[in-house]
Design goal:
The protein has eight helices and 19 strands. It has about 375 residues and is of the alpha+beta class.
Length: about 375
């Protein structure tokens, strides 16, 4: 606390003669005295005695001194302290018992010590997916290798109701942090599964855009492949391709505005003797899957032009084959005969269906 220094002055009496001090034995009280003769006036009233006595004390306290009745008490792990009437020192109390401190060279700090058996609840530890994402983000592996890690594990996490800017950034970077096969969005009532990472990378005309490939959990609509039982013209010549997918494309573009990837696909456009006999490159965004994407191999399809660039099974179905089974028939684009296209049956098996039959549309598309 700071004190304002006072100026201490003596009382000055003025008169016409020499004063005699009369001691009245404290008759006047408060140790006062009388001057004889009485002074004509007082030129300086002086400083009251109580203020004069306090000034040295105030000066002393103003130096920041701590009253000596204060003490310093050592806390746990410390020794020393005491009254503030002398210099004090606090010391750390080292030892191996309660209330002491462990030194840096203590043998208990050695990496060679035997761990104490203990258990952790699952929630106390990071998940394997979080640990792998930390590894991916560490820079220890090249970015092109990341999709291989991501395509090898199923998680199944709900990613929300929209494709966020942060998620878009992760896809663009090729790191795909916090995104795994089987994760899904539920947008406007439709569940979209992540089926693969960079499935089309470097295919067709050399696609270099990082992307994730999605499939809906169930059929979006039901339509026929053709108005009659024919596969003439292959997949591209079908009513499914030319008009029935329009509604599906509109729904998907509305759910992922501006993020649906358009790239080149090789699709069948001719048939001969009930087999896909020709194909061409087309700009493509949303299509039916083929047998290889669903089952991992050709089953009932005929002709190499059914395959195109989709020549491997989607990791979603490799890791979770049960997700093929929607308990409803859905179309594949493979030509199987002069009258039949391939399907996944309501029991989940590979089958064929007449072209004019009503089947489900469960498309495949990619977002970036």
């Amino acid at each position: 606390m700071a004190y304002t220094r006072r100026e201490i002055k003596d009382r000055v009496a003025v008169g016409d003669d020499i004063f005699i001090v009369e001691d009245l034995g404290n008759h006047l009280g408060n140790n006062r005295i009388r001057l004889i003769p009485a002074p004509t006036h007082v030129s300086e009233p002086g400083t009251p005695i109580n203020k004069a006595l306090l000034q040295p004390i105030e000066d002393y306290l103003a130096t920041g001194v701590v009253p000596v009745h204060r003490t310093i008490l050592p806390g746990t792990g410390l020794t020393g302290g005491g009254s503030l009437n002398r210099d004090l020192m606090l010391s750390v109390k080292f030892g191996t018992t309660a209330g002491t401190v462990c030194e840096g060279n203590d043998s208990r700090l050695s990496d060679a010590r035997t761990p104490t058996p203990h258990n952790h609840a699952a929630g106390d530890l990071p998940s394997i997916y979080t640990l792998l994402d930390h590894f991916i983000n560490s820079g220890e592996i090249e970015t092109p290798q990341i999709a291989g890690i991501k395509n090898s594990m199923f998680r199944g996490k709900n990613l929300g109701t929209s494709y966020t800017s942060e998620q878009q950034s992760q896809v663009a970077s090729g790191k795909f942090l916090d995104l795994w096969v089987g994760d899904y969005w539920v947008i406007n009532g439709t569940r979209y599964y992540i089926a693969a990472f960079n499935y089309y990378l470097n295919s067709s005309n050399g696609l270099t855009t990082n992307h994730i490939t999605l499939v809906p959990a169930k059929n979006l609509y039901n339509h026929r492949m053709n108005p009659s039982d024919t596969t003439e013209g292959g997949y591209v010549g079908s009513e499914m391709y030319t008009s029935n997918l329009v509604q599906v494309r509109a729904l998907i573009h509305a759910d992922f505005p501006g993020r649906v990837l358009t790239h080149r696909r090789r699709l069948s456009n001719a048939t001969s003797d009930g087999a896909a006999s020709g194909g061409a490159w087309f700009d493509s965004d949303v299509e039916l899957m083929n047998e290889v994407m669903a089952f991992g191999s050709v089953v009932n399809g005929k002709g190499v032009y059914n395959i195109g660039i989709e020549k491997s099974q989607l990791p979603l179905f490799a890791l979770r084959p049960d997700l093929l089974n929607t308990r409803a028939i859905w179309w594949l684009r493979d030509v199987c005969s002069e009258t039949h296209f391939a399907i996944v049956s309501d029991g989940g098996d590979a089958h064929i269906y007449k072209a004019r039959s009503n089947g489900g549309i469960r498309p495949v598309f990619s977002i970036f």
